[in-house]
Write a structure and sequence with these properties.
Blueprint (H helix, E strand, L loop, with lengths): L5 H11 L7 E4 L9 H16 L3 E6 L9 H13 L6 E4 L4 H13 L3 E4 L3 H7 L17 H12 L9 E4 L14 E5 L13 E3 L1 H12 L3 E5 L6 H10 L7 E5 L3 E2 L6 H9 L14 H7 L3 H11 L7 E2 L2 H11 L5 E2 L1 E2 L2 E6 L8 E6 L9 E6 L2 E5 L19 E4 L4 E9 L5 E9 L16 E2 L2 E2 L4 E8 L23 E8 L11 E4 L3 E5 L10 E6 L8
Parallel strand pairs: 1-2, 2-3, 8-9, 10-11, 12-25, 14-20, 18-21, 23-27
Antiparallel strand pairs: 4-5, 5-6, 6-7, 13-24, 14-17, 15-16, 17-22, 18-19, 19-20, 23-24, 25-26, 26-27
Helix pairs in contact: 2-11, 7-8, 11-12
The structure holds adenosine-5'-triphosphate and magnesium ion (2 copies).
One magnesium ion binds next to loops.
């Protein structure tokens, strides 16, 4: 069950009071980039509410700006919504309504509610005034209806260049709400549109197009983020003055913001274009496709978004909260395995040369139904470099000369000798093992404090590990400072190690918990049959508490 919130209460009331007898919502992305986790909030809200009230939800591409939009994005957005686990009822393109929008604009002109303006963008901005100062009328504001109709048709026929004319709604140049000071509703753009090609050279502005789109589709509840609150009077004006039959209603909710995360398509696109990341689906990106490639699950993303709640406010959510939910989701699902990220060879000198034995290991101790796996053990294994220290500090319970540790699923081993190269680097450790201490044998003779993971050397599969840190050191959203200066130089670390032979046939997007390291996802792009690539989703421990 999803959390109750003010949007749900509002819809419930609208149905109870018979203000509405059904519910239609929409998710309206502009296809000018990939979806990010902020969009997931809008998706969860719009699809979730439609579903809860037996309503319908439209996926509508808000594609009214030919300069930034592309069908690559259309495809990616559809994939991401489906992957998140949602199905839209109807699919629409705002650009399919261009003729109707044009006709409604003509209607406004005929009613004396819109005019063609020759002022430049800068002049229009100057004339608009400020919060404390009323706006000034354009000298073209009182053109005759006939002249306006003729000029608008000429605009449509391509007789003017970009920026030479605009169509403005005629509302109120002294309104305290600047959005109502004769907003621009059409502009000229000689550009090829991803859907309508070269059919149009004038395009409706968002503030005019969006309410019409909602009205045309019969949307009852148009849910958007709070930055559109000041546009609501204009939204209602457009619906009313364009004489739309169906009247949709806009309600705003707070945006999702996350610590150390940029969430603006413009900035994300900059990271992609400047090759600071490896595409929109780079595992460090907060895009849905990046989170997918990193290994986050749809369940974790949905739970996260639901738990952050829906309100008018938009606080900043700790990114560790998402990590918490992915751990929760994977805990019982992900098989356990062992992998060595920074290998150090260990030779067990008293183990018979050439012998390999198979040991039993649980696939998931927290979910015994997942069964057992068999892993090889022999005279040569790899352990982590950090699990050996020649001169350890106090309370170091791992391997050091003379110390004994447990090898997970195997035996106790004791460090007898350290082999170094000419420069004094440790290259190999020699140990002895005690056959009495075999895991599962019930041995209680003595205790050791450290348990290490390991991989048998002769059958080990070479693997690449990609470890991540936040892409940004500080959250610079909302400031004018160049966010590229905040890039974390350590955001990606690539290491070459080994995994156990049970990992031979791993498939793209399979998720594992590597003992002592964390949860990893099999990278879908760079994994080859010879060498799997594992992306760190999250480490095992966190200070985060819900
Ligand atoms: P951006 O500012 O990142 O470019 P946008 O709002 O321009 O995003 P759209 O494609 O227009 O992107 O967004 C589609 C829907 O997703 C809109 O209704 C928008 O309000 C919503 N949305 C975008 N970002 C967030 C966010 N951080 N939290 C909640 N909803 C969001
Ligand atoms: Mg937008
Ligand atoms: Mg945008």
């Amino acid at each position: 069950m999803e959390n109750s919130n003010f949007l749900r209460s509002l819809i419930k009331k609208d149905l109870e009071t018979k203000k509405r007898d059904h519910v239609v919502t929409r998710f309206p992305p502009e296809p000018n980039g990939y979806l990010h986790i902020g969009h997931a909030k809008s998706i969860v809200i719009n699809f979730g509410l439609a579903n809860d009230f037996n309503g319908k939800v439209n996926l509508r591409f808000d594609d009214t700006n030919p300069l930034k939009e592309d069908s690559e994005y259309v495809k990616a957005i559809k994939e991401d919504i489906e992957w998140l686990g949602y199905k839209w009822d109807d699919l629409f393109f705002a650009s399919d309504y261009f003729q109707e929008m044009y006709d409604r604009a003509v209607l406004l002109i005929k009613k004396g509610k819109a005019y063609v303006d020759d002022l430049s963008q800068e002049e229009i901005r100057e004339y608009r005034g400020t919060l404390t100062e009323p706006g000034k009328d354009s000298p073209y504001r009182n053109r005759s209806i006939e002249e306006n109709l003729k000029l608008f048709e000429q605009m449509r026929n391509g007789e003017f260049g970009n920026g030479e004319r605009v169509l403005r709604a005629k509302i109120d140049m002294s309104s305290p709400n600047i959005n109502l000071r004769d907003p621009i509703i059409y502009r000229i753009a000689h550009a090829t549109h991803h859907n309508t090609g070269d059919a149009w050279c004038i395009y409706p502005m968002y503030a005019f197009a969006h309410p019409l789109e909602d009205a045309i589709e019969g949307v009852t509840h148009s849910l958007c983020t709070t930055e559109f609150e000041d546009q609501r009077p204009l939204y209602n004006w457009v619906v009313a003055e364009c004489e739309m039959e169906h009247i949709p209603e806009q309600t705003e909710f707070g945006r999702l913001n996350i610590t150390n995360t940029v969430m603006s398509k413009r900035k994300l696109k900059q990271l992609v274009d400047e090759k600071i990341v490896d595409g929109w689906d780079d595992p460090r990106m907060p895009t849905i496709s990046g989170l997918r490639r990193r290994g986050y699950t749809p369940e974790a993303i949905r739970t996260f978004v639901n738990e952050t709640g829906v309100s008018k406010g938009s606080g900043e959510v700790d990114s560790q909260m998402l990590d918490y939910f992915v751990r929760e989701d994977l805990k019982l699902k992900a098989p356990r395995t062992m992998g060595i990220i920074r290998p150090l060879k260990v030779v067990i000198t008293n183990y018979p040369e050439g012998q390999v034995e198979m040991l039993d290991a649980e696939i998931n101790p927290e979910n015994p139904e997942m069964g057992m796996r068999q892993i090889p053990f022999s005279r040569e294994i790899y352990i982590e470099q950090e699990d050996f220290m020649e001169n350890p500090p106090k309370k170091y319970f791992r391997l050091f000369p003379g110390n004994e540790v447990r090898l997970k699923h195997a035996y106790f081993i004791k460090c007898e000798d350290v082999i170094k190269d000419e420069e004094g680097n440790v290259i190999e450790i020699h140990c002895t093992y005690d056959p009495e201490t075999k895991s599962g044998s019930g041995f209680t003779g003595r205790k050791v404090k450290g348990t290490l993971h390991w991989v048998e050397a002769s059958q080990a599969i070479p693997a690449e590990f990609r470890l991540y840190e936040p892409l940004l050191l500080n959250n610079e959203e909302g400031t004018e400072k160049n966010f590229l200066e905040q890039i974390n130089p350590q955001s990606l670390q690539v290491l070459q190690g080994f995994v156990e032979p049970t990992m031979k046939d791993v498939q793209a997007q399979e998720k594992f918990q590597f003992f002592r390291h964390g949860y990893f996802n099999v990278d879908p792009k760079d994994t080859t049959p010879e060498k799997p690539v594992f992306n760190l989703i999250v480490s095992l421990k966190s200070s985060f508490k819900l």
